[in-house]
Design brief:
It contains 13 helices and no strands. It is mainly alpha-helical and 338 residues long. The chain is globular and about 50 Å long. The two termini are 23 Å apart. It comes from Hyphomonas atlantica. Keywords: Cell membrane, Membrane, Transmembrane, Transmembrane helix.
């Protein structure tokens, strides 16, 4: 049963999701402005690409840093300060005098904005029973999957209407707003456990149960992302397709991922988490093997990739929420580092 203190956990869940969305938007909302940055801030296209890479690198370090801090300090306090810091650095990006300076600020921006992604699974676990937590994680994943599709569209609109600085202004203002809401509604957020479990990243690396869940999720998602990142060039240059073909593939994949993520909670209640994790993993693997076979036989129809993309994304949607939640449980109370 869920903790009676959180009989209406929707507010806390919404705040957690908003925090993770703002972190994800730090890449996709800024993406449309990147090609114009060399001319605006006097730099090269290679340096402009570092605007994205620096944010990702900072985010990776931030995940580890906030994981360690979250095991020692009240996560609600850390979340507020993370959002405030993220907002300040976002606003500072507007005044970057050069492209190298913007790259440095973007690294710090990614670093400061990682807290919500770190704390979300553990907080959701505290808010809901196991069955409902899987459903909540699936719903959060489905919302997050829309960001890569929608944020660039908003970014283009901001760039055309208000210039490259506007995306950073939006990130800054929204982050300050969410930080204020988290601080104001702190009592709605789950507090740290009364007794903290001692742990370390090394402990997770030597925990075979945790590694099974974590690595299977990482490899499944990694296989998908490797394919997606190279898909535009492959479709337009290798298959003589168009970007519309890529868009069709992406929209198809995201739609089925959302469907799978939102069905995962109910299906996990019916069949159990382990069968769902295995079923989803096998489905994604079959889809990716289909893509490999398509390449080996010299397939040339881009739209056929959209069909192969369905089991890849649907399987990830099925296995993601229960796998993620079981990894949190396998962390044995060390949710932040896990």
């Amino acid at each position: 049963m869920p903790n009676t203190q959180y009989a209406a956990p929707g507010i806390a869940f919404a705040l957690i999701v908003m925090g993770t969305i703002l972190s994800l938007a730090g890449t996709d909302l800024v993406l449309p402005a990147v090609p114009s940055l060399p001319e605006t801030l006097s730099g090269s296209q290679a340096m402009a690409q570092l605007v994205l890479a620096a944010f990702v690198a900072g985010g990776c370090i931030g995940l580890l840093a906030f994981g360690e801090l979250g095991a020692r300090v009240d996560q609600r306090t850390l979340l507020v300060w993370s959002l405030v810091s993220y907002a300040i650095v976002s606003l500072a990006c507007m005044f970057a005098p050069s492209l190298p300076a913007l790259v440095c600020l973007r690294f710090v921006q990614g670093l400061t904005g990682a807290a919500a992604a770190v704390f979300a699974p553990g907080m959701i676990r505290a808010l809901y029973s196991e069955e409902k937590a899987v459903g909540a994680l699936g719903f959060m994943a489905s919302i997050e999957s829309l960001i890569p599709a929608l944020a660039p569209v908003v970014g283009v609109w901001l760039l055309i209407g208000f210039g490259w600085k506007s995306s950073f202004l939006v990130l800054g203002v929204l982050s300050l707003t969410v930080a204020g809401l988290v601080a104001l509604l702190r009592h709605r957020m789950p507090p740290p456990p009364s007794t903290r479990v001692p742990g370390s990243y090394l402990r997770h690396l030597t925990n075979p149960t945790f590694l099974r869940y974590a690595l299977s999720q990482a490899f499944t998602l990694g296989g998908l992302l490797i394919f997606v990142f190279g898909a535009p060039a492959m479709i337009t240059k290798g298959l003589d397709g168009t970007l519309n073909d890529f868009i069709i593939m992406q929209v198809t994949g995201i739609s089925f991922f959302i469907a799978g993520s939102n069905l995962a909670g109910r299906m996990t209640q019916k069949f159990g988490p382990e069968p769902m994790i295995l079923f989803g993993s096998a489905m994604s693997a079959c889809g990716l093997l289909g893509v490999l076979l398509f390449a080996l036989i010299g397939g040339s129809e881009p739209l056929f990739l959209a069909l192969l993309f369905i089991p890849v994304n649907l399987g990830l949607g099925f296995r993601g929420p229960p796998g993620f939640f079981r990894a949190v449980i396998a962390a044995r109370g060390d949710d932040a580092r896990g």
